[in-house]
Design goal:
Strand 13 and strand 14 form a beta hairpin. The chain has 173 residues and is mainly β.
Length: 173
Amino acid sequence: MPGTFNGTTLTISATPVDRAPIPDEGATNVAGIAIVGSDMYCVKTTGLKTTLLKTTDYTTAKATAVKKDLNWFALGLTKIGNYLYMLAEDHKGYGGSTTIVKLDTKGNQLGTYNIKNICPNGALGITAADGTNEKFIIMHYTGSNNAGTLTFSVVNWKESLYFKTTAKIAEPQ
């Protein structure tokens, strides 16, 4: 994405392009997208009513609901191989019951990994750290009273190991 920076202001030059429409499904939170082959998956959530949507061509085809009422508050979505991994809470929002939920591409729950001990104050995002093993990078707060400091933890589903690296979010100058 081209842009310019004059020392004070960053200006991004981008041409918006309308692509595949994703139906609202009554959602208040778009939690994430993941691409498996040529299919794009998206999770949208309101409270504990999360819907997994899919489009077979994310440049043109309308997304449709694959599975409704996943009974999680979705926070993020990533994929490893042909599986989807949803970062989620078991109640209506952030707050310490953070779990990674393994799903197949039909939205069926295949397993869970509670990471409350890693993210006691809730998590913000998930991405795959290793495309062949079930390893993830989770971004979460280090403390409930310091929202400006985040920790990135590498979580290994199979070995239940994690490692922390703390990064301070830069305050606006």
